[in-house]
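Re: Re: ligand-bound prediction request (bumping)

Still looking for help on this. To restate: I need the protein modeled with NAP bound, output as structure tokens. Inputs repeated here so nobody has to scroll up.
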Amino acid sequence: MEPPHDRAPDDRPFVYVNMIETLDGHVALDGRSNALGDAADLESLLELRSVADAVLIGTGTLRAEGYARLVGSDERRARRRALGLAGDPVAVLISRRFDIPWETGLFAAPEQPVLIYTAVDGEAPAVTAPVEVVVLPGLTPATALADLRRRGVRSLLCEGGPTLNRTLFADGLVDELFITLAPLLTGDDAEPSLIAGGRLPQPVDLQLASARQVGSELFLRYAVATHRRPVPTAA
Ligand SMILES: NC(=O)c1ccc[n+]([C@@H]2O[C@H](COP(=O)([O-])OP(=O)(O)OC[C@H]3O[C@@H](n4cnc5c(N)ncnc54)[C@H](OP(=O)(O)O)[C@@H]3O)[C@@H](O)[C@H]2O)c1
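Reply:
Sorry for the wait, this slipped through. Here it is.
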């Protein structure tokens, strides 16, 4: 992927969301997403991380998936530096309640900077990762993204999950959506789709920018459209 930081609007970073889903539209199996993808999907995710100034992770996702240092390979960090990016992207969390899973691997990585936006006064416990807590009264994703932009973050990869995705799409804060379609059916209605927490105020139209096949997986890239698609009417 070409580095997206030149495409940032003035008031927030360029935001691209990456998710994997089954063909019947579920984003987790037994509460986690790792069983859905294969090596090609992991490679795709790591490449998307390689061009991001920062990576936004939902706190529910962090709790479910654990995480570690976001860019683990020297080679990828060198490529990031060659693009003018920091070797390690900043991990960003947004939690109005300051409900953070401190026990997860993200906080055990000494090289992994973490920036936490919250609406209530909170202090990070002693963890290995360097953590900064930013208290924004009346916190919304838009106010957090505006602060990120002021700090020089121009490109932000969001790795879900569905609850966080919903507020980002509802608030018009997403520029692109990367979807891996996993060749899998689960029929598990207990697992959410890409968006959880209720119907969006407006349907979001997407324009397919590219489609790539690797084995039986499909890698789809969509731009969020600025206008609604006309609905055809019978003549
Ligand atoms: N297939 C995939 O690619 C993929 C990717 C990611 C996750 N997942 C799966 O998704 C599941 C986790 O997703 P999730 O939906 O439970 O959690 P999530 O979206 O990762 O995080 C939800 C949290 O975001 C915080 N948040 C901050 N601002 C918010 C706002 N304005 N509106 C709503 N929430 C806001 C809330 O915490 P506060 O209330 O403290 O603000 C909320 O608890 C796991 O099963 C994981 O495996 C799958």
